[in-house]
């Protein structure tokens, strides 16, 4: 009983952070609705580029259906990964806004427990968010996914979210260390990943130096794996060449991110940066 009790305590603490995030969504549900509508409109706008290319290039030269599906996959995968990124990196900003940052970071709760609740919520919410966008997109474009390997694509998303969690935890130190502009600085990280990962175009069209950087982006492998599973119906076992780099990056990024956050937290406490307003 003595060994189970601390574990249950940590699980309950993690669930408490998940519940807190759920309450935040309920409180600001109008903002969530606005963000949902914006995300759907943005995803559809990008996807319509495929139909526009077919219209401009002639149906005999361009396969508009393939381009639409290519762009839809890139948009949805990126929406899922970036949603996880922002939920985690905005952790400190939300705490400052709510005026609870001192209490949260001073509470007798392990930071791993804290981050576990935050990341589990981010993954679940992002899956729901992306699922809604996918449903609307399928209805608008009447996409045929009968030959797609949906299970393989889902596994690729889950494998990729591990590395993004690590990157996000590491990036969340920016709002902690720089109260005035830290939240804006996280946009640089996500913008660089967007540029090199091949979200809307093949990585091969990038300049060579950017292609070399793309090797270190987990989103590159997730996008390739998901596209192969949905466009080509590639078997799950054959997605391993894309899955193992994403998993390896996650294994490295999560402990590294927690360590970096711990060091930043100690520095913030020592220098008095745990205040509500920058």
Structure overview:
This protein has 278 residues and is an all-alpha fold. It has one domain (4-271). The protein contains 12 helices and no strands. It has helices spanning 4-27, 29-57, 64-89, 91-98, 101-106, 111-141, 150-171, 173-177, 182-196, 208-214, 218-231, 240-271. Helix 3 packs parallel to helix 7 and helix 7 packs antiparallel against helix 11. The longest helix has 32 residues, at 240-271. The mean pLDDT is 84.
Overall tally of structural domains? 1
Largest sheet: none
Instruction: Report the count of strand segments.
Output: 0
Rough shape?
Answer: globular
Explain briefly what this protein structure is:
The chain has 278 residues and is mainly α. Helices cover 79% and strands 0% of the residues.
Secondary structure elements and their pairing?
Blueprint: H1 4-27, H2 29-57, H3 64-89, H4 91-98, H5 101-106, H6 111-141, H7 150-171, H8 173-177, H9 182-196, H10 208-214, H11 218-231, H12 240-271
Helix pairs in contact: 1-2, 1-6, 2-3, 2-6, 3-6, 3-7, 3-9, 3-11, 7-11, 7-12, 11-12
């Amino acid at each position: 009983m003595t060994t189970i009790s601390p574990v249950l305590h940590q699980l309950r603490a993690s669930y408490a952070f998940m519940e807190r995030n759920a309450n935040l969504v309920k409180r600001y549900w109008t903002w969530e609705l606005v963000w949902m509508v914006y995300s759907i409109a943005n995803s559809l706008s990008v996807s319509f580029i495929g139909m526009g290319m077919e219209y401009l290039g002639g149906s005999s030269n361009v396969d508009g259906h393939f381009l639409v599906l290519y762009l839809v996959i890139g948009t949805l995968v990126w929406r899922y990964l970036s949603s996880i990124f922002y939920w985690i990196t905005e952790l400190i900003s939300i705490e400052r806004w709510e005026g609870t940052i001192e209490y949260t970071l001073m509470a007798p709760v392990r930071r791993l427990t804290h981050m576990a609740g935050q990341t589990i919520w981010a993954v679940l919410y992002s899956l729901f968010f992306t699922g809604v966008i996918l449903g609307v997109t399928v209805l608008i474009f009447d996409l045929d996914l009968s030959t797609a390997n949906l299970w393989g694509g889902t596994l690729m998303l889950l494998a990729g979210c591990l590395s993004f969690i690590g990157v996000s935890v590491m990036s969340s130190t920016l709002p902690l260390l720089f109260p005035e502009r830290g939240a804006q600085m996280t946009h640089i990280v996500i913008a660089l990943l967007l540029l090199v990962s091949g979200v809307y175009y093949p990585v091969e069209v990038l300049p060579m130096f950017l292609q070399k950087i793309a090797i270190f982006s987990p989103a590159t492998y997730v996008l390739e794996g998901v596209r192969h599973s949905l466009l080509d119906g590639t078997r799950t076992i054959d997605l391993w060449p894309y899955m193992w780099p994403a998993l390896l990056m996650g294994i490295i990024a999560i402990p590294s991110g927690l360590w970096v956050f711990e060091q930043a937290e100690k520095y913030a406490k020592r220098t008095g940066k745990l205040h509500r307003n920058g």
